Automatic annotation (TrEMBL), chains A, B:
<feature type="domain" description="HTH crp-type">
    <location>
        <begin position="170"/>
        <end position="243"/>
    </location>
</feature>
<feature type="domain" description="Cyclic nucleotide-binding">
    <location>
        <begin position="64"/>
        <end position="140"/>
    </location>
</feature>
<keyword id="KW-0805">Transcription regulation</keyword>
<dbReference type="InterPro" id="IPR000595">
    <property type="entry name" value="cNMP-bd_dom"/>
</dbReference>
<protein>
    <submittedName>
        <fullName>CRP/FNR family transcriptional regulator</fullName>
    </submittedName>
</protein>
<dbReference type="InterPro" id="IPR018490">
    <property type="entry name" value="cNMP-bd_dom_sf"/>
</dbReference>
<dbReference type="GO" id="GO:0005829">
    <property type="term" value="C:cytosol"/>
</dbReference>
<dbReference type="Pfam" id="PF00027">
    <property type="entry name" value="cNMP_binding"/>
</dbReference>
<dbReference type="InterPro" id="IPR014710">
    <property type="entry name" value="RmlC-like_jellyroll"/>
</dbReference>
<dbReference type="GO" id="GO:0003677">
    <property type="term" value="F:DNA binding"/>
</dbReference>
<keyword id="KW-0238">DNA-binding</keyword>
<dbReference type="GO" id="GO:0003700">
    <property type="term" value="F:DNA-binding transcription factor activity"/>
</dbReference>
<dbReference type="Pfam" id="PF13545">
    <property type="entry name" value="HTH_Crp_2"/>
</dbReference>
<dbReference type="InterPro" id="IPR036390">
    <property type="entry name" value="WH_DNA-bd_sf"/>
</dbReference>
<dbReference type="InterPro" id="IPR036388">
    <property type="entry name" value="WH-like_DNA-bd_sf"/>
</dbReference>
<dbReference type="InterPro" id="IPR012318">
    <property type="entry name" value="HTH_CRP"/>
</dbReference>
<feature type="region of interest" description="Disordered">
    <location>
        <begin position="267"/>
        <end position="289"/>
    </location>
</feature>
Amino acid sequence: MYSIVTDTVADAMPGRANGLQDVNIHLPYSLSDLLGLLGAAPHVDSASNGFPLAMRQLRTDAALFHEGEMVECIYFVYSGSLKRVRTAEDGYEQVLGFAGRGDLLGYDGVCMGRHPSSAVALEDARLLAVQTQDLRSLMGSFPAFGPLLQKASSLELQRQGESLGLMAAVSAEVRLARFVLQMSERMQAMGQSARRFHLRMCRRDIASYLGVAHETVSRSFTMLADWGCLQVDNREVEILDAALLQQIASNTRGLLDMALDRARASAVERPQGRVSDSRPARRPRTAGREQIWRAAASLGSVS
Amino acid sequence: MYSIVTDTVADAMPGRANGLQDVNIHLPYSLSDLLGLLGAAPHVDSASNGFPLAMRQLRTDAALFHEGEMVECIYFVYSGSLKRVRTAEDGYEQVLGFAGRGDLLGYDGVCMGRHPSSAVALEDARLLAVQTQDLRSLMGSFPAFGPLLQKASSLELQRQGESLGLMAAVSAEVRLARFVLQMSERMQAMGQSARRFHLRMCRRDIASYLGVAHETVSRSFTMLADWGCLQVDNREVEILDAALLQQIASNTRGLLDMALDRARASAVERPQGRVSDSRPARRPRTAGREQIWRAAASLGSVS
DNA sequence: CGAGCAATTGACCATAGTCAAGACTAGTGG
DNA sequence: CCACTAGTCTTGACTATGGTCAATTGCTCG
């Protein structure tokens, strides 16, 4: 599985990653920090300084909570990133999504009182914890909190919908293209570069998230790279041709239709193409992808 | 695709049953009806009688709201059922989920102020509408409302997660088995029979929801029927062997492991077992569906 | 009754899952 | 410091699964 980094005491069990430091650590954080994190104006609910919140710290591969546990808190990512996973009865680990700064975790368990999925840190992370039992009084005492929580949960719901949209695509390359664009948007939303970023999750996690085999993720990455959309070095991704990537991502069914349309359209315009990296022509093995090659070539993305 | 049915202006299409009646119709409904629908005790917030709510009526195939529209209300299904759909840029219609009585719709648009997906009635339906601008004051004035809304939105989020779990399965039969079980649970939750029910959506919708071709849904239904799990007559479904169905549904990867495990297990309790006889030292590379047949046979599900 | 859509089934073959092997990296302990 | 393990990542080969096209049947509703 994943390389286990025990964060504190040597626990003899290698399978379990959670040491003592994953328990709550109370630091001088308060509700006002949360309101700020969620984008509230600086001084709304100034009394919110007086409501202390726990800041939870996690090391890589440590679980924030496990599937099936009672829900005591909902969490907001303060730094770092996590994945949400559900383990099927047969032991298969399905990745439901990834969370970064500002994202809400654990809310899906509120209705049943139990977490339907686990959350695991992809890197060292810190999270603000709000006890569910406090939710009611918080909404009463701090008028800004209710709408912000609503907004956050609504955003989660929207994100999940988009995740479903990823899986709708039939072809693996399209799924991956959509995934890359999704990550790119998120990075931008967090103030980072949308063009070049570092993936925090391994191929297996991406594969599970996209519903394909991890070998297929590898292959699809090289495909996208060959077409001149991306440059990939392990987890480092650079988007070279966002337009082409978008085009690929926008085709749910196959690659064929797009390639034809695109090739036809671009046969008219045809600007001078910039050269990314001229690689020896690889023989495309299938009819469908042959089209993409032509499309890409006619776009000037590949010389 | 689906015939687009505008629910406002009289469209000249004679074949379609949707006319003016899909616009808002204010009937004597109030917040107390909503609280009741969501499972609150009968007399909490008795003043809620005084807060009127719009009841929206939809005919089959009419849209509750369209993707991209401004969010004015969130809705709670009072009767009937709907599907949530997202139309990709290439025109492909992706079904995100289905909603029945008590389910919340439109909440995912609250964060951005625009609906990220459409909602379309699968049959004549009625919905209670709550204007988003009222949410804040409602939560202030009616203490029971906030938690109920929270619970409803949390449930939606959980459901979405389960939907993602459907797509995780590689084999089409497994996806369909999970879908059927999901529907069964929902029917039961709504007080109907979990064993025998009527699907409100067509094969295409199921297919889109599961991320497979609609022909594959047909084939998978006949497969499950052949294995003795189900009886299917068009949209009428009867579960014959829930245990086997569960078994099939619980295998994310292939059908292989399950069939073997199951055959082995039942070989113990069933001394006649000739099933797990001389298994070749190495598992046959892809045993395929033959295994299921044997497993089913050894279970006595198929004569 | 006919038009149109839903559902099923068959044939074909491209895509992607599976197994296998090798390259590379990071963490561990001698 | 260097193996040594254990993980990730990539690539190749093979083939089952499922997407696509096509034809048929059945259902519903004018």
